[in-house]
Automatic annotation (TrEMBL):
Ranges of residues in domain Cation efflux protein cytoplasmic: 242-317
Membrane topology summary: Multi-pass membrane protein
Disordered, as annotated region: 1-39, 321-375
Transmembrane segments: 47-67, 73-94, 114-133, 145-169, 181-207
Pfam families linked: Cation_efflux, ZT_dimer
Similarity comment: family membership: Belongs to the cation diffusion facilitator (CDF) transporter (TC 2.A.4) family. SLC30A subfamily.
Official protein name in the record: Cation diffusion facilitator family transporter
Main location per the UniProt record: membrane
Biased composition (Polar residues): 1-15
Keyword flag Transmembrane: yes
Amino acid sequence: MTQQHPSGASAPASSTHDHGHAGHDHGHHHGGAGHMHVHGSTNETRLAWALLVIVLFMGIEIVGGLLSGSLALIADAAHMASDAVALGMSWAALRIGRRPATARLSYGYRRLEVLVAFINGLTLLLVSLGVMIEAVRRFAEPQPVLGPMMMAVAVAGLLSNVVTFLILNGGSRENLNMRSAWLHVLGDMVSSVAAIIAAGVILLTGFSPIDPILSIFVSVLIVRGAWQIVRSAGRILLEATPSDLDLEEVRADLIAQIGEISDVHHLHAWSLTSEQAMVTLHARATPGADPLRIPAAVCARLKERFSIDHATVQVEAEHCTDADGAGQAHEQEHGHAHGHDGHDHGAHDHDGHDHGPTREESATGAPKPPAAQCY
């Protein structure tokens, strides 16, 4: 049996595998790998340039703060340092994510970018919380604000943030890692605008409470975006079904569009990254249907209708040899009975894409039904 893998895909070892299964075939369809590689390189380049701009301006602020004795400049430099760390982590995640898959990491390192996005989102939440606490404290203990110095720092910070924002703005918006880095810079840009407004009000009226008021307003906006990043990354890390995918719709569509199958069950979907969804399923063949034609038809339909490039399909002639809680619940709902033995698939550990022998297979030595994996 021959198994073909696209560049950067899951199986790192030899492309020829002998599973010892009669009729067990893996067919792979390439879709979007080159497109994602181009996006990855572009995102990495943009992050590198954005990081350079942030670090250079941060150095200027530190020197200016030390020479002038301005705490505002030092504080703003510290804030930009948190952005530099976030951008550096994002860049490193994309860089490391280009490494090829290994026997231990059969999907490679791409999910590292999701983990970094999750950490960046949490960092934004913590920074926003700190700003809110400081704003409340300043309401209780008002402090004098140097309007001219505040204006100069805010304008200079806005210029650097605008440059960085324009660099990142052309990156992929679907990539959570890029979105989290973009949100960091956007938060800084909005903060600079708010600081300019606050500095103008202070210079014209002397009303210093405008500073903490606008700080709270900006923090609320940042919290909203950061929470969306954390929630999206958390769903991917928990291997939840992609939010834009309805499993019941997928099941109904496959049965309606592919005449060779009478049922679809054990349907699972999850995401490797925000841009790459994956599906596994069992499909029951209709009487007289060629089971070897079904996997390719299912994979083609999943790609055409749902933009899913990676699917593992197991074809069954009669009874389902495997069962788990989700499958049993689905079959009870739709009135199917297949003689399940309570076998549990467990988590999505597709290292090598081998589901392992079932209890029935171990006891009788009978091979599993035909299956195929496709991209």
